[in-house]
Amino acid sequence: MSNRRFEMYEYHQALVRMRLGESDRQIAKTGLMGRRKLAQVRETAEKQGWLVAEVSLPSDATLALFFSGRASKQPSTSSIIPYQDEVRAWVKQGIAGCTIHQALIRKYGFTGAYSSVRRFVAKIKQTPAKATVMLDFAPGEAVQVDFGAGPVITDAFTGEVIKTHFFVMTLAWSRHQYAEIVRDQKIETWLGCHRRAFEFFGGVPARVIIDNPKCAITKACYHDPEVQRSYEAFAEEYGFLISPCPPREPQKKGRVESGGEVHQNQLLADTDLSQPP
User: Fold this and answer.
1) Most buried by CB count within 10 Å: which residue of 26, 79, 216, 222?
2) What does the pLDDT average to over 49-76?
3) Inter-CA distances, 266 with 25, 223, 260, Å
């Protein structure tokens, strides 16, 4: 993503993730920036002491002094190796080699010939597919959250028919769950549910794995999901990383997906639908 000008908030998010311990490779996989750009940012941040937790993050004006005018001047390369993870993902989606070549030129200023891309793609297609393995997490490492369809409730006083939703947060290691019924999926509701879930569990995980709800992700994309600004600020305040699932890959959020239906049925059984919400 080096062939474009980055906004100051994107540099800010990169610094936040670096301070939370993510490597350049991990950050690049979120689509925020390419690894070469992140290496430049990290080098500058280390020299300025921005990665020290006790030091305040630089302001937008300070970031602009260091990065304004440089963000879109990333050196190009004739090698595909720095972009191999992204190229492999494109090949997996069935994208043609010529389209991949153009994408590398557009996003990274790639100067290699199409023949190098074609050979690399051919090599990938000859490699046997990797077997799917069960996701494994350490205690406190991650939670998985999602909204699901809740019961339709009739207000006993007004007769209003109300469509509801389930918010479910599942601890990835123990599979303990927090759930509540809400009336909408607005960002205010999403953040409030997070706060109450953290209070219920008595702590904050290192990472929150989400699907792609509109209240949290403004643009669902495999390589470059755009996180809602309020949610980004919320995550920074509480000190956790937002980890969106790629579109159409529910297996990466299996605990909340599989446990949600069971918990939903239990909540429905325990809920008196005749009472107003």
Assistant:
1) 216
2) 70
3) 41, 36, 10
Q: Are 56 and 4 in contact (CB under 8 A)?
A: no
| Dihedral sign of CA atoms 193, 195, 198, 204 in order | positive
pLDDT at 63: 86
Distance CA 18, CA 195 (A): 24
- Give the Å distances, CA to CA, from 5 to 83, 218, 260, 268: 19, 20, 41, 49
Q: If we measure between CA atoms, which residue out of 268, 195, 275 comes closest to residue 235?
A: 195
Q: What pTM, to 2 d.p., does this model score? A: 0.51
- What is the pLDDT confidence band of residue 273, given thresholds at 50, 70 and 90? very low
Task: Provide the sign of the torsion angle of the four alpha carbons 64, 62, 244, 40, taken in this order.
Answer: positive
What is the percentage of the chain residues whose pLDDT exceeds 90? 24
For residues 260 and 148, is the Cβ–Cβ distance under 8 A? Answer: yes
- Domains along the chain? 8-126 (no CATH), 142-270 (3.30.420.10)
Are 41 and 57 in contact, with CB atoms under 8 Å apart?
no
